[in-house]
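Q: Protein A?
A:
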Amino acid sequence: MRLIIVRHGESEWNRIGRYQGQQDAPLSELGIRQAEALAGRLQREPFDAIFTSPLQRAARTAQAIARYHPQVPLAYEPALLEIAHGDWEGLLADEVIERYASGLYEWRWHPTRAQMPNGESFSNILKRVLDFKEHLCREYEGRNVLISTHDVVVKILVADALGMNMDRINRIWVTNASISVIEYGDDLPYLISLSEACHLGRLETVRERQKAI
């Protein structure tokens, strides 16, 4: 299976540095333009199925792509949701730093043992993402699948393919509306590309401008 993984376009909360998690922030004006550029980049790529997180920032990104592929089924998949940030959701990055500095440090350096207050455990998101990946590998063997999802989900899939320690996932940068590709077969999984964003040009969101996921 060839898995084409896209991160959603920039959301309004990405733009202002507000933690969103599973809150349903819409795409920003830039994010809409990023999604359209991404859709143009992928218009000639063959897909057998498209799956998206139900959150509108990912869903609208997937819908932009799907307009070029009207014959391909599009499904909304809860396994592709971002990690729930609990009490961090809705807070600006500076507010999280002020109120939860030690927890934020642990999340950045040791996510597998971190627990955002009233949020989702890392073990839970890891299980749901990898269970869904294994389902896709069984159901779509030898075919092409696109998923539209979120920062942490992309990082987990990349780290899993590379056999990385999951505590290192925050050393991976995944830009908005970027493309990462993993190929799964009888042999090892292969990371073909990571956070490809050439189609964005000046629309790309650089790391220094994004303080919250």
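Q: Protein B?
A:
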Amino acid sequence: MKVRGIKRGQNIEILEELNNIPDGTEIIIDVEFIANQITEPQPPLTDSERLARLNQLFGVWKNQP
């Protein structure tokens, strides 16, 4: 069985239902990661950059009724 999950700290959050495994069952997990989804942390935006992005987002709706 192969399922997807997300690592958060020392926990792995499983993204699919595991209904066929009873609670309390000991399992072994073979961990692999998807290399193209690992990104470098982005530096925080300055206030002016944040405002520019918000204005760009709000501008999408300017011609809508």
